[in-house]
Each structure stands twice: as structure tokens, then as C-alpha cells.
Amino acid sequence: METYITILRGINVGGQKLLKMEALRKIFTDLKFENVRTYIQSGNVIYTSHTTNINFLNEQISKAIENTFGFHVHLITLTRNELKKAIQLNPFLKDETVEHSYFHITFLANTPTTESIETIKKLNFNEDKIEINGKIIYLYCPDGYGNSKLTNAFLEKKLNTIATTRNWKTTNELLKIANL
Fold first, then answer.
1. Residues 165/64/22/2 CA torsion (nearest 10 deg)
2. pTM for the full predicted model
3. Which of 30, 42, 90, 137 is at 20 to 30 A from 106, Cα to Cα?
4. Looking at beta carbons, which pairs linking 151-156 to residues 24 or more positions away fall under 8 Å?
5. Is residue 115 pLDDT above 80, yes or no?
């Protein structure tokens, strides 16, 4: 039995793709996942499953959401250990002068190409900092994520993959819930 964290992209934002967490939990329960829990309204689901194929999990979940609500949702699923590793490897943790509340992690559906990563590294993001490690992007946005150019849409366009971002507090809370 593996513990998974599935994070949905673009639900309950600006009145679009509204999805109550109770209904989302029911979808996961109907799919026979166990210990289903959600965290806040942005589409974070923690659960256990005997299935070890993440692509299969994503297909099942996407299809169930589309069949139930009539819209497609991009999602990214990680194991508890993958989330733990992502948190531990945050390169900004080494800098004791930065405020953790300005940390964000962007999760990618696919590993970006070396060329697209190099293109991003050449750009100027003012005070914002970005570090890319495989399918994980670490952001430090001291003026606030809402004021950053490093949005999901920007990263998706530059890296040619689906991206969804969670703040540091949410990311750590997801791991805490997954460890219960």
C-alpha cells in the first residue's frame, strides 16, 4: 500500500472549474482508494492505494472527474517519499537570510528539456529566484507569488509541460497529512 498526493491544476480559481472537496473525496473513495483526505480548496488529495502505476492513477482520476463534473483537470501525483524528497532538497533552505513564507514549489508533469531550462536561466526575474531539479521547481518570491512572473502559465509555456504550484506551508502540510 502506497501513500499518494494528487494535486489538481486550476480548480476553484476565479469561479472556474468549481469542485467541492467533499465531492472530490467521494470520487477518490468511489475509485476504491483508502484513507482519502483533502487539504484546502485548491485540490490537494492524500490517499492510499495498492496501485503502483502513477500514470494509471492519473488516468483513472482524470476520467472520473471529467465524467462527474464535465470538465478536464490536469493533475500531478507524487508518492509520499517523492514529496518528502522535494521538500528536503529545497536549495533555498540553505540560505538562513531568506523567509520561508516566500518559498513555493512548482510540480511538473514532465521533466523539461535542458534547452528549455537554459532559456529560463537566462531571463531576469528581479528579486525572484528559481531552481529547477527534474520535475520540481523551487521558487523564492520575496515580493509575493502574486507579483511574480514565474506563474504556472509562464512555466508551462517555457517548459512545454503542465505545472501546478503550492506554497511552502501547503507543501509541508501535505507531507504532514501523508505521514499520519
1. -70
2. 0.94
3. 30
4. 152/9, 152/10, 152/106, 155/106, 155/108, 155/120
5. yes
